[in-house]
């Protein structure tokens, strides 16, 4: 299992404009939605359309937009949902969309995002007929097209948004996040550095630092960031991500005291992203703890998930991962982190698979997700399906650690289909690839030892282990000590 969690930076979030406005990041951008009644007016129009034309297409338009809205479900949305329930059968994704749109606690399923995004695409295209140069509408349309896996048309929408409103941080940060999603971080950095805001705006400079450091391309603009911090022109909220990004660089350089000071300052008035970064740092032992409670912070789903994992409340952490994915459906990280929690700490493989499938098609090109899916499938006895996922992961993944994790997954597959010697050979190859990563090594040894105990070749006493259980990353790391025993088999 793998989590995409060995390194994290405050890479800009790509969210719909109304979600950005919830946390002030979208403040100031010119848009048909920036008026106080803008977003509400759009929903009101769809409600009126539904009232005048009570049919399935109008119901789905209203429910698709309602799913991504932060408003409480309206009477019209509930009526539309009732029509969908009357005219569809059990298992129909339209029925599931209706359920989630009017009941935020209803379970998500694989195709809900696709159906809802298809409805939003239609609504947004209609809006562009009335407001053809509105940058936030173009950006939201690009978001939904990317969620549908249509990156070619999403790129066109992002370009139109930048052309119409490229001097605003919300547009530039969203566009940079699109290019990262499309596998082109250099283009993301080029876009940010070509802006007039590239040396003066904390939102743009923090994004620049996070991307250049996170993807190891170009030199981060550290001196520019320090100049902004010393200018006295910005609020603690506006500076939270630039401080967080610099802290992460300082950790990497071994300057722990400087890094911890910056983390503390980033938490004076943090964005949800900066707060999540602090919990990530705490989980790596880089800071002693996080003083800010994420419980009532807007959109702080990732921070809450990480906090629950640190407190070994894994069921609650998994719940937050589903919310995190709804907030960031174009990110693979919620599904990677959540499937790890579900499969390793809870052994709830069906939920791990559900979370991974929800991340497709938007993140179908992420090898970690295919590896984690293979792990849960073989754990449920579905060997052929697991083998297909491993092959898919191999066609995508290229780095050494990913190949080592895939070898470990193949080790489990070979054990489960009865080829013990090949299983051991796979685990040994994986060991030599990932032995410098203490967490991955501990997990490898834990699952390898579990298979040896299952077939009776080794006992807990032989391994010097009191119990075969992993409830935390600390537990996992303790199993690294049995590597010497396993390598002799």
Shape: globular
Instruction: Find the count of extended strands (DSSP E, 2+ residues).
Output: 0
Strand residues, percent: under 5%
Helix content bin: 55-70%
Question: pLDDT below 50 for ≥5 consecutive residues: which ranges?
Answer: none
Structural class: mainly alpha
Straight-line N-to-C gap: 23 Å
User: In angstroms, what is the radius of gyration?
Assistant: 24 Å
Question: Which CATH architecture of the largest domain?
Answer: Alpha Horseshoe
Task: Give me a quick take on this structure.
With 489 residues, the protein is mainly alpha-helical. The protein has helices at residues 17-22, 38-52, 56-67, 75-87, 93-102, 112-130, 135-147, 151-165, 169-181, 185-193, 202-214, 222-229, 236-252, 256-266, 272-283, 301-310, 314-327, 333-345, 349-359, 367-379, 383-396, 400-416, 420-434, 438-455, 460-463, 473-478, 483-487. Helix 20 (367-379) runs parallel beside helix 22 (400-416).
Would you mind describing this structure in some detail?
- The protein has 489 residues and is an all-alpha fold.
- The protein has 2 domains: 17-308, Alpha Horseshoe (Serine Threonine Protein Phosphatase 5, Tetratricopeptide repeat); 319-487, Serine Threonine Protein Phosphatase 5, Tetratricopeptide repeat (Alpha Horseshoe), CATH 1.25.40.
- Helices cover 67% and strands 0% of the residues.
- The chain is built from 27 helices and no strands.
- It has helices at 17-22, 38-52, 56-67, 75-87, 93-102, 112-130, 135-147, 151-165, 169-181, 185-193, 202-214, 222-229, 236-252, 256-266, 272-283, 301-310, 314-327, 333-345, 349-359, 367-379, 383-396, 400-416, 420-434, 438-455, 460-463, 473-478, 483-487.
- Helix 5 (93-102) packs across helix 6 and helix 22 (400-416) runs antiparallel to helix 23.
């Amino acid at each position: 299992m793998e989590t995409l969690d060995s390194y994290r930076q405050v890479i800009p979030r790509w969210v719909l404009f109304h979600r950005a406005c919830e946390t002030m990041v979208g403040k100031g951008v010119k848009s048909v939605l920036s008026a106080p009644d803008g977003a509400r007016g759009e929903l009101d129009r769809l409600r009126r359309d539904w009232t005048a034309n009570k049919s399935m297409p109008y119901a789905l338009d209203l429910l698709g937009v309602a799913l991504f809205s932060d408003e409480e479900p309206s009477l019209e949305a509930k009526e539309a949902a009732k029509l969908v329930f009357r005219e569809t059968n059990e298992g129909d994704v339209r029925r599931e969309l209706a359920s989630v749109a009017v009941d935020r606690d209803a379970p998500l399923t694989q195709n809900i995002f696709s159906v809802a995004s298809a409805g939003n695409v239609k609504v947004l295209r209609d809006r562009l007929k009335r407001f053809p140069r509105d940058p936030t509408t173009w950006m939201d349309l690009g978001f939904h097209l990317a969620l549908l896996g249509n990156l070619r048309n999403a790129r066109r929408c992002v370009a139109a948004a930048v052309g119409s409103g490229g001097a605003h941080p919300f547009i530039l940060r969203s566009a940079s996040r699109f290019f990262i999603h499309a596998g082109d971080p250099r283009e993301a950095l080029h876009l940010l550095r070509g802006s007039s805001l590239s040396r003066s705006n904390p939102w743009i400079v923090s994004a620049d630092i996070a991307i250049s450091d996170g993807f190891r391309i170009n030199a981060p603009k550290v001196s520019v960031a320090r100049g902004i911090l010393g200018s006295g022109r910005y609020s603690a909220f506006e500076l939270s991500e630039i401080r967080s990004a610099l802290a992460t660089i300082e950790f990497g350089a071994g300057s722990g005291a400087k890094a911890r000071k910056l983390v503390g300052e980033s938490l004076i008035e943090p964005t949800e992203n900066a707060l999540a970064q602090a919990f990530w740092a705490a989980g790596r032992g880089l800071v002693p703890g996080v003083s800010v409670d994420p419980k009532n912070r807007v959109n702080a789903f990732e921070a809450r998930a990480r906090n629950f994992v640190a407190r070994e409340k894994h069921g609650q952490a998994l719940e937050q991962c589903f919310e995190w994915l709804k907030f960031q459906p174009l990110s693979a990280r919620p599904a990677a982190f959540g499937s790890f929690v579900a499969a390793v700490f809870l052994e709830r493989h069906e939920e791990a698979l559900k979370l991974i499938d929800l991340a497709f098609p938007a993140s179908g090109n992420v090898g970690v997700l295919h590896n984690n899916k293979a792990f849960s499938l073989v754990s449920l006895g579905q060997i052929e399906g697991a083998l297909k996922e491993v092959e898919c992961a191999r066609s995508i993944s290229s780095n050494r650690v990913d190949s080592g994790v895939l070898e470990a997954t193949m080790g489990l597959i070979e054990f489960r289909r009865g080829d013990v010697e090949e299983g051991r050979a796979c685990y040994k190859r994986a060991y030599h690839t990932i032995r410098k990563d203490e967490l991955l090594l501990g997990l490898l040894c834990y699952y390898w030892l579990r298979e040896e105990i299952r077939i009776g070749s080794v006992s807990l006493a032989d391994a010097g282990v009191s119990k075969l259980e992993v409830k935390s990353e600390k537990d996992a790391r303790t199993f690294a000590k049995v590597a010497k025993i396993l390598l002799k088999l």
